[in-house]
TrEMBL record:
Organism this protein belongs to: Listeria booriae
Protein name: Uncharacterized protein
Length: 112
């Protein structure tokens, strides 16, 4: 007998001890299905972040580098609001010396 466990934007299908994760994808929201372990099925329901990570792993075979993704998002935000380099000096660690040479004048100007 098949059991469908619904999550937020995905579902885990359990059938005869086997698990699949499914979610809509593409321009027509066609469902995709990937076989996963019971551990990953359980993990998908722990949090939205865990569900995202399980879906990426199911699709690519690699766990996402969450730390790197967060740093990239932070870098993009700081590029839009360079004054955050001065207000929060630890943000400077996210950039190379050359990038800082370009961003710091913008940061100073934004604080004027």
């Amino acid at each position: 007998m098949e059991k469908i466990h619904r999550g937020n934007g995905f579902a885990v299908i359990e059938k005869e001890g086997e698990y699949q994760i499914s979610w809509p994808q593409g321009p027509y929201d066609q469902p995709v299905f990937y076989t996963i372990s019971k551990e990953n099925a359980d993990r998908a329901f722990k949090s939205p972040q865990d569900a995202y990570e399980v879906m990426i792993y199911a699709e690519t075979g690699q766990w996402p580098n969450v730390k790197e993704e967060k740093q990239n998002a932070d870098r993009e935000l700081i590029k839009k609001f360079p004054e955050l380099l001065i207000r929060i000096p630890s943000n400077q660690e996210l950039f190379t010396e050359d990038e800082l040479k370009e961003l710091m004048p913008l940061a100073r100007k934004a604080l004027e």
